[in-house]
Design a protein that fits this description.
Layout lengths: L6 E2 L9 H5 L28 E3 L16 H6 L1 H21 E3 L2 H17 L3 H12 L5 H5 L3 H12 L6 H16 L3 H17 L2 H19 L5 H17 L3 H14 L26 E7 L35 E4 L5 E2 L13 H15 L5 H11 L3 H28 L5 E8 L13 H20 L2 E6 L1 E4 H10 L6 H24 L5 E5 L12 E2 L8 E7 L17 E4 L3 E4 L5 E4 L2 H18 L5 H10 L2 E2 L7 E2 L2 H8 L4
Parallel strand pairs: 2-3, 4-7, 4-8, 5-7, 8-10, 10-12, 12-13, 13-17
Antiparallel strand pairs: 1-9, 5-6, 9-11, 14-15, 16-17
Helix pairs in contact: 3-4, 3-11, 4-5, 4-11, 7-8, 8-12, 9-12, 10-11, 10-15, 13-15, 15-19, 16-18, 17-18, 19-21
């Protein structure tokens, strides 16, 4: 299913999307998805004359003749089987013709082949490709979650060919439990909780409805020329419905047994908590303006930590004639990338009740943490009963409410423990609909780039010193939006149009950051477990002296399963269940590099409050020289705010 572009770098809504809920049922790909480390150095020349792949844009596009309704296709071998055969043929051909060194991309190919062969009933080849994908894992938690289901299926099929027989089920559960139990519980806990929760919500009716809501409009808009993502969506649907869903009750039962057996296990103390440091109000410091370039801030929550424009009044007039009306505490841009008003992003288009959806966001976070309460039960019951258009409307509403909550949450993390911080909001209204009404245009990309230039000029005029950017845009995201809106006759045409849209956006965003050399910009790397350069993310993939890209670790100093990495993602911070306020003042823990980046912004703002004469390069050097190395991750460091501030305040 398509997701909004650009994407805030939080994974707060992962439990609310139907296809995301179904995905963990896949037998070859384990619950948290493939792990990705920074790509290793590529050979100077492709082997055996292969075509070198440097970014995702270099990969070939394939077209599939798909028409009709998703469920009808999945139910008809005559229509579905040729799609699977073409997926296999294309994948094998690509691996033969192209020199692909990016680990996440190779994993995606291998997992695709594993799924396809399993759907075709060739379990041996499915395991072979699954093992190849697993061999590329570099994250401990991802390795601990791989391969259990498909190996348990293989063991069960050795004793019975009937998946509903007691012998099959007993052997499946036996091997499934053995494999999960052999792993450290702290690495598998979240995945096991996810399995148990899915069994309480996921039904065949829900999944079929989610495929109809998510895939049918894309099939219609493709006009018989579907892209790779749509074909793979059908493949995942087949595996989920026919192979994984019947096993879900048994998987969940085993997960529950392991969770219950570890109920009394000691919880490791947070290593991140040891690094936290606050600035007392009595510190010899000066106010520092912190830009929150995000989805808006509920300014009522931070009455003593706001930057205020002295030349503007809330009267509907551009008093200072700077191009922005009522920019009391910052500026805002609408969906059309033109200046608008409002400290928070607009909720126009929200179909449901705002308060109820914020309750659901909180319940989803509790559910992911394994908390069982009345709010979680209500969320599970409500979501599990959704069907048809209501399901897609709910997903879109939750995406919009997630945007609405995002910036305020980020702001709270960025200014925590710093009475000298002054928030300046740069409010973006990001697209949120799964199937966009309109396709982005080249003019749209140009306007977005121009908005970035206006933002940089505004930040400089306000004497901002630190700007947090917990979002990213990728060319591939634009290509997805074009596909969703039915733009372009073929995948290749959409790819070319996406390049024309992305270029002015990227170039002008880079120019904007470069034009403010005294401002330190801090970007979240992303939550796709991929590489910022291969995915062509901006701002995360830009190389500028006044920009830092931040990845996420958990509170035990391990890479989170979701964090995007890359050559320039050197600094990391806690991005795992970080608590902060959302609009209205409720405190909710979110995970994502959106929560990690403002931890770095927080430290940078404290440094500049104490030493305002420092330049971005000085601040970066201080944070790096006092950071903690990440075990087994050479050249990667976790910031240490306490040590950094102590070093800064040492007598000269």
């Amino acid at each position: 299913m398509l997701t909004p572009m650009p994407r805030p770098t939080s994974s707060l809504l992962a439990a609310t999307a139907a296809l995301a809920l179904a995905a963990p049922l896949a037998l070859a790909v384990q619950p948290e998805g493939p792990a990705v480390q920074a790509a290793t150095a590529a050979p100077t020349s492709p082997p055996s004359g292969k075509i070198k792949v440097n970014t995702a844009d270099d990969l070939p596009r394939h077209t599939y003749a798909i028409t009709g309704k998703a469920i009808e296709i999945l139910s008809d071998p005559a229509r579905f089987d040729p799609i699977v055969d073409q997926l296999i043929a294309n994948a094998l051909s690509d691996l033969e013709k192209y020199d692909i060194t990016d680990p996440s991309t190779l994993q995606a190919y291998y997992d695709l082949l594993s799924t396809a062969f399993h759907v075709k009933g060739d379990l041996n080849r499915a395991i072979e490709w699954s093992d190849r994908a697993g061999a590329l894992e570099t994250k401990a938690d991802a390795r601990a979650r791989r391969g259990h289901t498909i190996r348990a299926v293989a063991a069960a099929e050795a004793v019975s060919t009937d998946p509903s027989s007691p012998e099959y089920i007993a052997k499946f559960k036996e091997v499934y439990k053995q494999r999960w139990s052999a792993q450290p519980y702290e690495l598998t806990k979240d995945a096991l909780i996810g399995l148990r929760n899915q069994a309480k919500m996921v039904t065949r009716g829900l999944i079929e409805s989610s495929f109809a809501a998510g895939l049918d409009p894309l099939i219609d808009s493709a006009n018989g020329k579907a892209d790779q993502a749509l074909a793979q969506g059908l493949l995942a649907g087949k595996q989920t419905l026919d192979l994984a869903l019947p096993l879900l009750p048994h998987m969940a039962a085993v997960a529950g047994e392991i969770i219950d057996a570890n109920a009394g296990a000691a919880v490791a103390a947070s290593k991140w908590a040891e690094r936290v440091a606050e600035l007392p109000a009595s510190a010899p410091a000066k106010p520092v303006v912190v830009g929150i370039w995000d989805t808006g801030v509920d300014v009522a929550l931070y009455p003593s930590q706001l930057w205020t424009n002295p030349a503007e009044s809330p009267n509907g007039v551009d008093d200072d004639q700077n191009g922005f009306i009522d920019d009391i505490h910052g500026i805002a841009f609408g969906l059309d990338r033109r200046p608008t008003t409002g400290a928070l992003c607009s909720l126009e288009g929200l179909k449901g009740d705002k308060s109820k959806y914020i309750d659901f966001v909180a319940a989803a976070q509790d559910m992911q943490a394994g908390v069982q309460n009345e709010a979680v039960a209500q969320f599970q019951q409500y979501y599990g009963a959704l069907r048809g258009d209501d399901l897609r409307a709910f997903g879109d509403d939750m995406s919009l409410i997630g945007n609405y909550c995002h910036g305020t949450h980020v702001a709270g993390v960025a200014v925590a423990g710093n009475p000298f911080a002054r928030i300046l909001h740069v409010t973006e209204n990001f697209p949120w609909e799964s199937i966009p009404d309109e396709a982005p245009s080249v003019e749209f990309g140009e306007r977005w780039g121009d908005a970035a230039l206006k933002t940089a000029a505004y930040l400089k005029a306000a004497d901002a010193r630190v700007v947090n950017m917990s979002w990213r845009i990728g060319r591939g995201m634009i290509e997805e939006m074009l596909a969703g809106a039915g733009a372009g006759a073929t995948p290749d045409e959409r790819a070319e149009l996406s390049r024309r849209i992305f270029k002015p956006l990227r170039d002008r965003l880079e120019e904007a950051i470069r034009s403010a050399p005294d401002v330190l910009f801090i970007a979240g790397s992303g939550n796709e477990d991929n590489n910022v350069d291969f995915a062509e993310y901006v701002p995360a993939g830009l190389r500028l002296p006044n920009l830092i890209t931040v990845g996420a670790v958990d509170d035990q100093d391990k890479f989170t399963s979701f964090t995007t990495t890359g050559e320039n993602v050197e600094l990391y911070a806690n991005g795992f269940r970080v608590s902060s306020m959302v609009p209205g003042g409720r405190v909710i823990p979110f995970s994502g590099t959106s929560a990690a980046a403002p931890q770095v912004a927080n430290l940078a703002a404290k440094i500049l409050a104490l030493r305002p004469e420092l330049k971005p390069a000085d601040v970066i050097a201080l944070m790096k020289s006092n950071a903690d190395p990440i075990p087994d991750k050479p050249g990667r460091f976790i910031i240490n705010p306490k040590r950094t501030l102590e070093a800064l305040q040492q007598p000269k």
